[in-house]
């Protein structure tokens, strides 16, 4: 590949990333049906014709957005799981939600995206592939299910259905995290102590729902916070 070709390829990728980033921002606000190319172009500060140069239809644009975000989500989740070696299952759960809490504060769009996916996968992927698309948004719940299953096998979590327990855990965590996100929007007064208190409030019902006693999960929370302070 010549220099001009390489330069053009870089420009193309940068432009597509600009469009995808704008689409993500619009999508989490309006959903698939509420998003159109005019809004995306305005968000990206690009001519609508340029959007259509890269993506012939809105569906083409969203298929690539989903592929990009699924890869981002998988990389994020896999990185968290890789860094949990040597921790017991309760510590693994706490470390996992601690990192997601921090990531959501830095970039709340990722979680908002994954919450929306199950509602729009059918429209984007059609009747044959929508279940596959929706399942790819379930990476965090699947990771939690694996940790819960390990906790049950080690006698640290009371016997239950790991998949259902993970679904409940994740639903409560996300709902509480969203409430906290709304509180901190536009605030410049949130510090690390506030974050620690908020995280404790966010996760308490998640761990209690698994039948894990307060002294155990709170000790894990304090350990994770101390390691990362």
Automatic annotation (TrEMBL):
Q: Which residue ranges hold the DNA-binding region?
A: 36-55
The segment(s) forming the HTH tetR-type domain are 13-73
Residues making up the signal peptide according to the UniProt record: none
Task: Write out the entry's keywords from A to Z.
Answer: DNA-binding, Transcription, Transcription regulation
Q: Which residues form a coiled coil?
A: none
Matches recorded under PROSITE patterns: HTH_TETR_2
One MF term in the entry's GO annotations: DNA-binding transcription factor activity
Q: Which PANTHER family match?
A: HTH-TYPE TRANSCRIPTIONAL REGULATOR BETI (PTHR30055:SF234), HTH-TYPE TRANSCRIPTIONAL REGULATOR RUTR (PTHR30055)
- What is the protein name stated in its UniProt record? Transcriptional regulator, TetR family
Q: Which organism is it from?
A: Paenibacillus uliginis N3/975
């Amino acid at each position: 590949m010549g220099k001009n070709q390489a330069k053009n390829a870089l420009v193309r990728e940068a432009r597509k990333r600009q469009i995808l980033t704008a689409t993500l921002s619009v999508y989490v606000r309006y959903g698939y049906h509420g998003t159109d190319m005019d809004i995306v172009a305005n968000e990206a500060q690009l001519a609508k014709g340029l959007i259509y140069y890269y993506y012939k239809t809105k569906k083409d644009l969203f298929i690539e957005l989903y592929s990009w975000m699924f890869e981002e989500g998988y990389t994020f989740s896999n990185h968290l799981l890789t860094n949990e070696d040597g921790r017991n299952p309760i510590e693994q759960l706490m470390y996992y939600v601690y990192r997601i809490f921090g990531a959501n504060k830095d970039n709340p769009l990722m979680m908002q995206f994954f919450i929306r996916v199950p509602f729009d996968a059918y429209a984007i992927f059609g009747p044959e592939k929508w279940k596959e698309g929706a399942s790819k948004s379930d990476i965090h719940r699947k990771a939690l299910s694996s940790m819960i299953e390990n906790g049950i096998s080690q006698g640290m979590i009371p016997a239950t259905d790991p998949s259902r327990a993970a679904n409940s855990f994740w639903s409560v965590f996300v709902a509480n995290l969203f409430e906290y996100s709304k509180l901190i929007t536009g605030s410049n007064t949130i510090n690390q102590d506030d974050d620690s208190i908020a995280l404790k409030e966010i996760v308490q019902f998640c761990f209690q729902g698994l039948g894990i006693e307060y002294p155990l999960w709170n000790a894990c929370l304090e350990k994770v916070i101390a390691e990362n302070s």
